[in-house]
Amino acid sequence: MSNLPSEPEFEQAYKELVSTLENSSLFKKNPEYKKALQVASIPERVIQFRVVWEDDKGEVQVNRGYRVQFNSALGPYKGGLRFHPTVNLSILKFLGFEQIFKNALTGLNIGGGKGGADFDPKGKTDNEIRRFCVAFMRELSKHIGANTDIPAGDIGVSPREIGWLFGAYKANTKLWEGVLTGKGGTWGGSLIRPEATGYGLVYYVQHMIQYASGGKETFKGKRVAVSGSGNVAQYAALKAIELGATVVSLSDSKGTIIATGENGITPEDVAYIADLKVKRKQLTELSSSEQYKNKFKYIEGARPWKHVGKIDVALPSATQNEVSEEEAQALIDAGAKFIAEGSNMGCSQEAIAVFENHRKEKKGEAIWYAPGKAANAGGVAVSGLEMAQNSQRISWTSEEVDNKLKGIMEACFKNGLDTAKEYVEPAEGEFPSLVAGSNIAGFSKVAAAMHAQGDWW
Q1: How far apart are CA 255 and CA 304, in angstroms?
Q2: What is the per-residue pLDDT across 138-185, written as a single tens digit (0 to 9) for each?
Q3: What is the DSSP secondary structure assignment for residue 365, as one 8-state letter?
Q4: Structure pTM?
Q5: Same domain, yes or no, for 223 and 333?
Q6: CA dist 24 to 53, 368, 390, 421, 424, Å?
Q7: 197 annotated binding-site participant
Q8: Is 122 annotated as a binding residue?
Q9: Known catalytic residue at 295
């Protein structure tokens, strides 16, 4: 990779995977997998295009659009679209690379990809966003299809944008097919899809808690810190509350709210915050609201981790690298026993090192870390279930989808756990490394498929 421009986010994701593979017995048992890693680290295809659209003043605007079709060994490319001013090729390659192995862990037949544009929806009117979506899909539609590449939503791409993108795809291709997931429930979408990542995250952590406690504990009575306030954070908070936990924080790009009462954040509070997000407003609104200003402490320009007090569980659910080395130590000092990423690569490499070193030193008393490629796989899992429903022209009930999601998250946890035990033998009393186990399990499945298809020898 030395002859390439610096791609810090992708390089971080690559190094995180490589470090766990090299510190396991995988390459000793399968030395040929080193070649598979070299091949898999290069996308099969990178598509970059301009998006020309017209604002409400009639002025022409232009943005950069991307689709990284990273790996199709296990199935058609699958991964979200992100509309955000920070979007660049490095971020999309990192997200696509992670997506390959996350999708592998679901057990579904889907490959990995990612896409988006450096378009900022904030400050834009609905008509401007709609026109941008139409212009974006005018080009993207040439490269995707229900059996080729099936994008979904991500930051800046909600079900509303998915609808506009789907309409533009249908107009361009004359095809009604399951080319996008996250669609509306009345026209091909799956029930539980908006909730899936947050619910799946909590289901995964529930297995961590039960394993660590020998089946004696659940979420009941746990204090949970959550970052973010989008779909993942909202539904993770709601499911944790439903299971008996007290949620003490949420956040956005401007700051953090910390609940000051014993009951923490309630479902009604989450509903109010969800409405703020739909209106594209910030959590600062709570600090000036008569109803909420005495219920929450608002901390401007801060993430929650240093301010939540004593907690049991931390769920970073906002964006990449949202837990630093210093914040990782703060979570340990706060008594946190479990941390699982609802966001992609939510913890910096330095933070992961803090958690993993603590796991080795403190054994059963340590914090236990779960990476996003396993813990937040619920979203893409239900996207895969949406694809299956589209292919069969049927719709499953909420209970059917939720039960399948629970089964997939349990399998993700057990796969990572068992693989860690096989390739990274833990010391006596030490929790297995879920980051190592998940990386090895996902990579091995993809490498074997690539080898069977002649992608490396």
Answers
A1: 8
A2: 999 999 999 999 999 998 999 999 999 999 999 999 999 999 999 999
A3: G
A4: 0.93
A5: yes
A6: 50, 18, 40, 10, 5
A7: yes
A8: no
A9: no
